[in-house]
Each structure stands twice: as structure tokens, then as C-alpha cells.
Amino acid sequence: MELVYKTEGTCSTHIELTVEEGVIKEVAFWGGCNGNLQGISRLVKDMKVEDALTRLEGIRCGRRSTSCPDQLSKALRQISQ
User: Fold this and answer.
1) N or C: which terminus of the chain has fewer CB atoms within 10 Å of its end residue's CB?
2) pLDDT tens by residue, 32-45
3) What average pLDDT does range 46-70 have in this prediction?
């Protein structure tokens, strides 16, 4: 399943992701800190959605109540419903 998720409260504006049978196949962020977001995308590739949620959910960016990794967890929850 594919999803384009509009982020909230982060420098990135959207996350494009593909999940197949509970496994993350592709992740791409639009905007944000390019190097860090490429790193996150590569680290979660081929990871089970459940494992990524455990690691990413609730991460904050400075004083913000969310972060790009946290927004990815929200996108993963949406695509997994």
C-alpha cells in the first residue's frame, strides 16, 4: 500500500511511503533536513512497521511536540489501519 502523508509541525511537508505485508519498503520525505531524513529512510527500509513504531513514536525536535520521525510513525499508523 502506498501513502502520501502531509506532515504537521515539521520542516518536512510530506512523507511518501510504501508498506507491503507489514514491512516498510520505501520512505521519502519532502523538505526538511535532507541528510538526516535520507538516513532515517534507509534505516527503516525493510523494517517491520511495529518495530519502527516502537523506535520512532514520540520523538520530539527541540521544543516542538513532534519531529520527522514522529510524523513517520503517524503515517505508518495511518497506512496500517
Assistant:
1) C
2) 999 999 999 999 99
3) 97
Closest by alpha carbon to 28, among 51, 53, 5, 55? 5
Q: Which three cell numbers stand for residue 24?
A: 516498510
- 81 pLDDT more than 90: no
Q: Are 3 and 78 in contact (CB under 8 A)?
A: yes
Q: Can you tell me which residue has the cell 502531509?
A: 6
Partners of 31 in the β-ladder: 12
Q: With beta carbons less than 8 A apart as the criterion, state whether 24 and 47 touch.
A: yes
CA 14/CA 21 separation, integer angstroms: 23
Q: Answer for the pair 15, 29: CB distance below 8 angstroms, yes or no.
A: yes
- Structural domain including 31 reads 2-80
* Total domains in the fold of the chain: 1
